[in-house]
Amino acid sequence: MSSRTYNAQYYQNHKLDMDATAIEWRQKERKRLIKEFGGKCIKCSYDNSIALDFDHVKNDGWSDKKRHRKNVIFWVKQNPERFQLLCKNCNWIKEYHKRRLLSLCRRQVQPKKD
Description:
- By secondary structure, the protein is mainly alpha-helical.
- It has helices spanning 3-36, 61-67, 72-78, 88-109; strands at 52-56, 83-87.
- It is flat and about 65 Å long.
């Protein structure tokens, strides 16, 4: 039996335990990283960890998703300088302004129809 086949079979036989362990690890790491990042939103100081997000400072989250399908906790641990802690409200406001700017830029670039 190849190692790939063995690993797949092992995962199927132990899926619930492995998934529970992974969820528990992500939750612990997330709490630890939130504390490491100051424990509150850098914009408004909101500190309820349920509503805090790790935001890509340079809006380059798409590149992480494109390259690998790993959880954001993995990326924060690998490159903490690329992230900031924002509450969901401030994160959405940042996203709104980014989309609005992109929309305005697209309108200016499109050739005028006569």
